[in-house]
Structure formats: structure tokens, C-alpha cells
């Protein structure tokens, strides 16, 4: 009897040890914060909960960085990490925050849009918990997040997500996907409150351009493109033709389908005067048929299985031995964003948005992404925001 009890107690202790051993890395990832250095162009920061009070004090709240120009002009909102498993947009947004100087107009930048998803993981898919971007002063570490918000911040999931206000039925998981919860509502689920906060920022500030930066699989047809609704298509087309001709990378415009609800490129335009754009660059790491999901695959985008699929014409982007490195993806996002500002400003001189200091495609390819991040340990007091 005593031996049986001891055996059971031992088994329980072993189970507890395994749970702690397995859970501790996930706990640490959730509580690791990225030091974001405010560059000289950042004039203020505020939490998104200023526009959606229900988020205050929760892990779904996130920081909005404001870069206000000396001269008045138009306004743009740049959002990244809507899907935190597509972090190249976040890196492009951080480069704007560290390096951008707005000459004319105002930029609002939200680098960690779905902040909860950034503290979520995909260990079941073998995803790494972090990735390091090399810099001259050492590695800058980021969390590798998930596509959807953490169930720790929004739970339980519904059987079916009913989109507000269209009542369109979506997959259950889309309740935690901030690219299905637009335009949101102030008293809805936390992810609806996140998108509502951004909608309110857009409406109350009279934002002209809303750019939502993503990444997509090379086997997914909507990749390497700008997704735009009817009212944004002229600017999107001019932007893609210009970057293709002058900077030499592929892009195209995909129309935003009017019947598919909840997406930023649809709902922002339908519920405000802003022109929405969603940018996609290919992330080979996200494709299903690849080798192990290593940090190296994320950084380099090189995979032998994708290469053989490319030879069989199964991919929607050009793909060769050079893969699709991080610099290329971040560089494309940076150039396309700047080009959308420029094309809009050419047509709307009184609402112009003029930004300097942000590198374009060729510069990022040459210098690498880490070149644009400064050492947070050497930053002036009060200039580091933990995200
Ligand atoms: Zn996405």
C-alpha cells in the first residue's frame, strides 16, 4: 500500500516536472519584451486603448508611435504584426520608428498590432519562440508570434465566428484573428476592441492612408502584392508599377473582394474616408512543405523542398537557390510603403506625406535589416519603449 502511494506520488511529481519544464519557455516568451528605440522623428506615443478604453491594462493593448512633421499635411497609419507570424512588417515599421523623419504630414505607426498574438506561439508546429536579427552591436531578439491572439487573452472560442456588423459566418479561430475582426466594436471581444481602436484613430484623426503589412506563403496566390479595394486601386497600381520599374522587384495589385468581410483592406475603406492597402511579401518559412521551421529558414527563406516545387511551377513567386531572405522582404515592404505615400502626395498636394530617413529596397538589401536598429542599452533615457 505504502509502495503504491509512493509510486503514485512519484508519478505526479514527474508529471508536474514535465509540465513546468515544457511550460516555462512559453511563459518566458510571453513575458519577454522587445526594446523599441524611439528615433528622433517620434514626437509622441500613446496606447491604442486611448481609442478603445476596454483594452486598457490588458495584454491586447499596444503602443501607437506618432511621427508628426514640422509642416502640416496628410496622415497615414502603418500597422504591422496583425499576424505576428509574419514579422517582416513589424521590422519595417520599427525602421520607420527608429529612422523616419516626417517633413510633412503625420505618421501613426503600430508595430505590434495584435500584441496578444505576438506573445502567443506555435510550438505544436515546431515554430521557434524567438528570432535574432544580427546588428553591429550584437543580436536584437524578437518573439516569433502566432497568427492569432493568445487564448490566455481571449477565450473561449465560439463554434462559429459571427462577423460584426455583416453577420457573415467565419471560422471559429477568426474571433482571434485581427484581420477578420474589422471594423470591430467597443464592447465586443478583445480583438474586436483592437480593430475598433484603430478605426476610431483613423476616423477621429482623419487618416488618409491605412497600410497593413503582412507576409504570405509562396504557394498562396495572394502573395507579393498590394491588396486594395476599388478606391485605393489607382494609387496601389501606380505604386507597384513604380517599384517594379525603378527598384526591380515583382509586385502586383489584388482586388479586395467586397463579399469577404472583416479584412482591413475591405472594412477600413467601407467605414472611414481612409484609403486602405494590405501589403504581402512571400515568407517561405510559412509554407507547409518545408524542412524544419528553423530561425535560419525564417531569415534566409531558403528551402530545398520549395526549390523543387518551384521547378514544378507550384509556387506563385519566382524562387531559386538564393531563397527569399529577410532583407528582401523587409526592403520590399519599406519601398512599397514609401511609394504609396509618394503616389498619394502627388495627387493630393495639400494632404502630402513626406518622409525622409527611411531606407528603400536596395539599401536594406545591401546593409541588412539590423543596420537600422540602434543599441537600446546606449539609448538616451526615456527613449526606449518595451513592447
Ligand atoms: Zn497575414
What is the number of E strands?
15
Present as ligands are: zinc ion
Number of helices: 10
Morphology: globular
Helix and strand pattern = HEEEEHEHEEEEHEEHEHEHHHEHE
Radius of gyration of CA atoms, rounded to a whole number: 21 Å
Decide which structural class fits the backbone: alpha/beta
Describe this structure in words.
By secondary structure, this protein is of the alpha/beta class. The chain has 10 helices and 15 strands. The strands form 4 sheets. Strands 2, 3, 4, 5, 10, 11, 12, 13 and 14 form a 9-stranded mixed β-sheet that branches. It has a two-stranded antiparallel sheet with strand order 1-15. A two-stranded antiparallel ribbon has the order 6-7. β4, α2 and β5 form a beta-alpha-beta unit. The chain is globular and about 85 Å long. The model has no long low-confidence stretch (mean pLDDT 97). Zinc ion binds next to loops.
Main features:
binds zinc ion; 33% helix; globular; alpha/beta; 10 helices; 387 residues; two-stranded antiparallel sheet; 15 strands
Amino acid at each position: 500500500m505504502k509502495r503504491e502511494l509512493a509510486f503514485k506520488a512519484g508519478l505526479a511529481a514527474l508529471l508536474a516536472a514535465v509540465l513546468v519544464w515544457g511550460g516555462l519557455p512559453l511563459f518566458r516568451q510571453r513575458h519577454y519584451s522587445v526594446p523599441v528605440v524611439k528615433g528622433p522623428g517620434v514626437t509622441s506615443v500613446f496606447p491604442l486603448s486611448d481609442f478603445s478604453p476596454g483594452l486598457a491594462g490588458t495584454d491586447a493593448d499596444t503602443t501607437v508611435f506618432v511621427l508628426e512633421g514640422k509642416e502640416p499635411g496628410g496622415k497615414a497609419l502603418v500597422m504591422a504584426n496583425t499576424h505576428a507570424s509574419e514579422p517582416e512588417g513589424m521590422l519595417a515599421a520599427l525602421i520607420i520608428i527608429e529612422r523616419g523623419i516626417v517633413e510633412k504630414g503625420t505618421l501613426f505607426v503600430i508595430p505590434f498590432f495584435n500584441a496578444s498574438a505576438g506573445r502567443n506561439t506555435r510550438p505544436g508546429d515546431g515554430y521557434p519562440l524567438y528570432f535574432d536579427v544580427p546588428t553591429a552591436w550584437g543580436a536584437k531578439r524578437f518573439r516569433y508570434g502566432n497568427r492569432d491572439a493568445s487564448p490566455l487573452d481571449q477565450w473561449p472560442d465560439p463554434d462559429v465566428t459571427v462577423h460584426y456588423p455583416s453577420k457573415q459566418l467565419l471560422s471559429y479561430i477568426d474571433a482571434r484573428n485581427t484581420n477578420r475582426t474589422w471594423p470591430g466594436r467597443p464592447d465586443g471581444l478583445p480583438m474586436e476592441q483592437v480593430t475598433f481602436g484603430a478605426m476610431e484613430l483613423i476616423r477621429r484623426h482623419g487618416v488618409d492612408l491605412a497600410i497593413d503589412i503582412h507576409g504570405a506563403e509562396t504557394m498562396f496566390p495572394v502573395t507579393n502584392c498590394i491588396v486594395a479595394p476599388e478606391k485605393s486601386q489607382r494609387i496601389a497600381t501606380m505604386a507597384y508599377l513604380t517599384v517594379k520599374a525603378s527598384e526591380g522587384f515583382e509586385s502586383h495589385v489584388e482586388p479586395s473582394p467586397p463579399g469577404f468581410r472583416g479584412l482591413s483592406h475591405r472594412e477600413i475603406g467601407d467605414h472611414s474616408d481612409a484609403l486602405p492597402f494590405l501589403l504581402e511579401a512571400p515568407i517561405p518559412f510559412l509554407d507547409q512543405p518545408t524542412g524544419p521551421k528553423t530561425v535560419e529558414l525564417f531569415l534566409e527563406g531558403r528551402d530545398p523542398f520549395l526549390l523543387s516545387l518551384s521547378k514544378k511551377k507550384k509556387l506563385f513567386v519566382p524562387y531559386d537557390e538564393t531563397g527569399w531572405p529577410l532583407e528582401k522582404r523587409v526592403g520590399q515592404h519599406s519601398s512599397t510603403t514609401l511609394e504609396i505615400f509618394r503616389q498619394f502626395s502627388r495627387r493630393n498636394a495639400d494632404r502630402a506625406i513626406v518622409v525622409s530617413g527611411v531606407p528603400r529596397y536596395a539599401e536594406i538589401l545591401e546593409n541588412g535589416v539590423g543596420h537600422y536598429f540602434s543599441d537600446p542599452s546606449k539609448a538616451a533615457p526615456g527613449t526606449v519603449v518595451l513592447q
